[in-house]
């Protein structure tokens, strides 16, 4: 049996955990951040490092999408529309929003679900100033990653405390975290719709 309380095992988990965590956060930041913050509350990781990696992974993911749009141009945008099943009218609306409120659009979309990928590709396609893009991505990343870390850490702390008293506390906390995350995702999708109205 693997004893995860062994200092050597914990050291090994931390050594491979942080680089792996960053890679996963680039692809799927929200879920990876919540799980990493949950693990941090149980003593596996440093919560501040988790926050920094979450912000960094979030920004790197945004830059990759921006780069695809910047060098791929309209062809990349059209392919993205098909893959993500985004209507051309939505992309046209995003382009108008960029012209009027470039950085505000990036910041707003960072706190929504469903528009991020196509928005960042569009930003690259219209060749939005990279400095403005990074600034908005960074500020939005701080807010969103901070929220996710707090959420994951809270549920992890609750799990550790309550599990000592209630037999099925682990399942209860996990279920509560999933429901809470679903509520947030639905709320963010509603925000996406409001942005495009």
Explain what the structure shows:
With about 200 residues, this protein is mostly helical. The protein has one domain (about 5-195). It is built from seven helices and no strands. The protein has helices spanning about 5-25, 30-40, 45-85, 90-110, 115-125, 130-160, 170-195. Helix 6 (about 130-160) packs antiparallel against helix 7 (about 170-195). The radius of gyration is 19 Å and the shape is elongated. It starts with 6 loop residues before the first helix and ends with a helix. The model is unreliable at about 1-5 (pLDDT under 50).
| Radius of gyration (Å) | 19 Å
Mean model confidence by pLDDT: 76
Number of E strands: 0
* Helix content, binned percent: over 70%
Oligomer: single chain
What's the total helix number? 7
Strand content: under 5%
Largest sheet: none
Structural class: mainly alpha
Tell me the number of structural domains: 1
Would you list the SSEs in sequence order as H and E? HHHHHHH
**Unreliable parts:** 1-5
Short note summarizing the structure:
Helix content is about 85%, strand content about 0%. With about 200 residues, the chain is mostly helical. The chain has one domain (about 5-195).
Keywords:
197 residues
List the helices and strands and how they pair.
Blueprint (H helix, E strand, L loop, with lengths): L6 H21 L1 H13 L5 H38 L3 H23 L5 H10 L4 H33 L6 H27 L2
């Amino acid at each position: 049996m693997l004893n995860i309380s062994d200092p050597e095992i914990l050291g090994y988990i931390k050594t491979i955990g942080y680089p792996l965590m960053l890679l996963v956060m680039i692809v799927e930041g929200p879920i990876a951040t919540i799980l990493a913050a949950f693990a941090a509350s149980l003593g596996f990781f440093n919560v501040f490092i988790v926050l920094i990696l979450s912000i960094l992974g979030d920004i790197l993911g945004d830059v990759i999408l921006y780069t695809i749009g910047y060098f791929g141009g309209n062809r990349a945008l059209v392919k993205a529309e098909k893959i993500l099943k985004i209507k051309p009218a939505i992309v046209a609306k995003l382009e108008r929003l960029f012209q009027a409120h470039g950085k505000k659009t990036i910041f707003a979309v960072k706190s929504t679900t469903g528009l991020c990928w196509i928005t960042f590709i569009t930003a690259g396609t219209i060749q939005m100033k990279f400095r403005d893009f990074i600034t908005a991505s960074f500020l939005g990343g701080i807010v969103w990653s901070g929220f996710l870390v707090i959420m994951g850490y809270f549920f992890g702390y609750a799990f550790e405390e309550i599990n000592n008293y209630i037999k099925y506390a682990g399942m209860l906390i996990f279920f509560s975290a999933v429901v809470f995350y679903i509520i947030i995702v639905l709320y963010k999708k509603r925000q996406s719709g409001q942005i495009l109205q």
